[in-house]
Amino acid sequence: MKKKSLLKNCVKVVITIILITILIKKIDIENLGKAIGMLQKEDLYISIAIYLISVELNAVKWKILLPKISILQLSKTCFKAQFYSMVLPGQLFGEASKVLDLKESNEPSAKIASSVIIDKITALIGMMAVGTVSVVFTSIKVPNSLRASFVIMLLIFLALLMSSRMQFINNLIVYGSYCLWKNPKHNIRKFAEKLYKLYDIWKCHLNEGKVLFISVLVGAINQGLGVFQVWMISNNMGLDVNYLEYCWIMPAVAVILLLPISFGGLGVREVSLSGFLALFGVASEKAIVISIVLLFSQIVAAIIGLIVIGCDWIKSTILFN
After folding, report:
1. Average pLDDT, whole number, for the chain?
2. Predicted TM-score of the model (pTM)
3. CB contact at 8 A, 93 and 177
């Protein structure tokens, strides 16, 4: 098991190095220096502030699904997840850390896991809804396959959210859980019980139509805030790419970043953003500067998460002693 984990990490390191190498070959160091010189300190500060507000808004959105847990605890958990997303390969590891972090709360683990999954799906629905609308009205000619991809992704996430209302899925989960439960091994039977319990709570969450609608709406607002962050940096650098265009570019980049193929999305974000902005004639150097600012904002949030982890560890150590 450890060998497989080590092999996966080695593959991700190799992919990260390859992507960074591709970027280095594409850019001109002198032009990169000029692009960096276009940035003002205020741009960096405002960008960081917007990103931190976005993390806090994620906590508010999550609070809709877990009303009994304090917003302070959820905020701390969201910032911790920022740290784990940076140091572990892939954003999904950051989402998984939320379940572990709240295991000491009064809420059942299955309910927390369900809320994390639904929170992520509603965020993706809000993001893809914004992207789908904007890619239709883009000022450039994009392949129909790209437009179709947005629609398909939106439909997939909607189908995931509504899966418990499909009788076929219900029957599949019940039958699968029952088959696993019949297994003589205790661990597998225990897993079957947790799976069914998670699905049962999942269905309860999905019956709360108003809650889901608000969650999707907040997710779309948060996506709009993230797009504003990128557009502000781009605009201050003098790039001729309007806000509407970033409304589909950033969701496309975000979906690619979900793939756990590098550490902290390093290299993936730069290559994908550079590729999309090239459609508007933006030089790779300027696209990389935008990506660096976004990465720096994430690092600041991750550092806050690390501080929270450290404070919690010290607090638990003192109480334990």
Report:
1. 79
2. 0.80
3. no
